[in-house]
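## retry 2 of 3
previous attempt timed out at serialization; input unchanged, resubmitting
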Amino acid sequence: MGSKEFTAGIVTFPPGTRNKFHIHDHEQILYVVKGKGVVATEKEERLITVGDVVLISAGENHWHGATKDSVFSHLYITKVETKTTF
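## retry succeeded, writing output
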């Protein structure tokens, strides 16, 4: 079973790791399922933890990853046709 409109998956970051700044051309939803993490834009950094939901706007330059002392896992949801640029 799958969706023709959305893609989803779980990403896990070891303590202290994060991805690079990147941009999606559609909105992205993150749902934290484990640990503590950070989601950041060019203007701010926000600490997030289990149960938090984050909506990242299309075109927003951002990164996300684990705090120094915690494994961090999140579910992501995007449209199937979403393109990511770094």
